Amino acid sequence: MASSRPGIDLENPEEAPVRAIKRGTAVFERRLDISAQAAFGEWSRPVDLHLRRDRAGNLFSYVSFDFRIDSETVFGFGTPDGKWYRAKMRYEEIVEGQRITYVLTIKRRHRLIYLSTVTISFRETANGCVQTYSEQGTSFDGEPVPDHLQWYAHRLFGKNFSS
Fold first, then answer.
1. Topology of domain 20-47+89-157, per CATH?
2. Which pTM does this prediction carry?
3. pLDDT of the residue at 163
4. Residue 18 carries which DSSP code?
């Protein structure tokens, strides 16, 4: 039986289109002079991103924000050369004051081009907390995805962060 999706024949999977795959891992850590609960709170509410541009000219905008397990935050972003992307963060685990885990998908023209698992953890220290951002991702088809990690690093570490 043939698939209803064009270009994919389930009876002949060897004829399925081949997609280039690239994998990567990023880990950022920062010591903060606020409690783990306060740092967690910064991630549990939306950032005001309505039509905001970063220094590279990328445009960011929230579509929806729903910070609950099995719910999604959706945002769009575009590059100065006119490419538009849609990202979804589906929350898989939320442990108040300790950890947030979500699956991030990025699509361009309704085609999946990036998929990752992200964990943000918060650990109390004597002088505040340590915040760790860990992402394991896969990009498809060599699509040049704008560096959303740089945006997250900016959110995590402030404006003076450089990769």
1. Alpha-D-Glucose-1,6-Bisphosphate; Chain A, domain 4 (3.30.530)
2. 0.74
3. 37
4. P
